[in-house]
Structure formats: structure tokens, C-alpha cells
Design brief:
Blueprint (H helix, E strand, L loop, with lengths): L2 E9 L4 H18 L3 E9 L2 E11 L2 H9 L1 H9 L4 E9 L13
Antiparallel strand pairs: 1-3, 1-4, 2-3
Helix pairs in contact: 1-3
Length: 105
């Protein structure tokens, strides 16, 4: 059932707003163009203003692989390099999930 990831970005000092704007543009495209991406939630850490954590849930591996091929994702992956010091990706095995149909700005 599904494929999930947790991606942790360590943003360069002073790049927080630029990175967040890049993320927002990317999420808009994900929302409208990727039916296999069930959840793509981005978070700022209240106790670490330079850390951003993404939670991604895909219908299956094929949906994740399709996600990686979209132009908006390729642009994000290339452009984020100017804004982040490090990226850590954890793949998760989904045991169960529930996601609301509403978009969260």
C-alpha cells in the first residue's frame, strides 16, 4: 500500500524565504498535475528555522517514479541546490494511512 518518504532539508542561512517560495511554486504544480501523489506536505520546524521537513505519500512506486520525471520536480531538484546545505531522504513502508481531500495552504 503506497510509498512514503520523509525528506529533511537544511536550508542555508538567509535562504529560508527563497526556498519556501520555490517549494510553494512546486507544490502548486504537484497539486494540479500529479494524481498519484496523495500527500505532499511541507513543514517548517518551530525550534529550528532552517529546517524543512517534507512528508510525501504516493499511490505506489510507479506514481513516485512519475513524480520524479515531471518538469516542475526536476526544476525544484536543480534549483534547491542554491538554497540547501544538506538533504536527507528516508523511504517508509506504509502500514496504513488516511488523508483528507482538502488542500492546506
Amino acid at each position: 500500500m503506497g510509498l512514503a518518504l520523509v525528506v529533511t532539508h537544511r536550508v542555508r542561512p538567509g535562504h529560508e524565504q527563497a526556498f519556501d517560495a520555490l517549494v510553494q511554486r512546486t507544490v502548486e504544480s504537484i497539486r494540479t498535475m500529479e494524481p498519484g501523489t496523495l500527500v505532499y506536505a511541507t513543514h517548517a520546524c518551530s525550534d529550528d528555522p532552517r529546517q524543512r521537513i517534507f512528508y510525501e505519500l504516493y499511490r505506489d512506486r510507479a506514481a513516485f517514479e512519475a513524480h520524479e520525471q515531471y518538469a516542475h520536480v526536476r526544476t525544484f531538484l536543480a534549483d534547491r541546490l542554491a538554497h540547501v546545505e544538506s538533504v536527507e531522504v528516508q523511504f517508509l513502508d506504509v502500514l496504513s494511512a488516511h488523508a483528507l481531500g482538502a488542500s492546506i495552504p
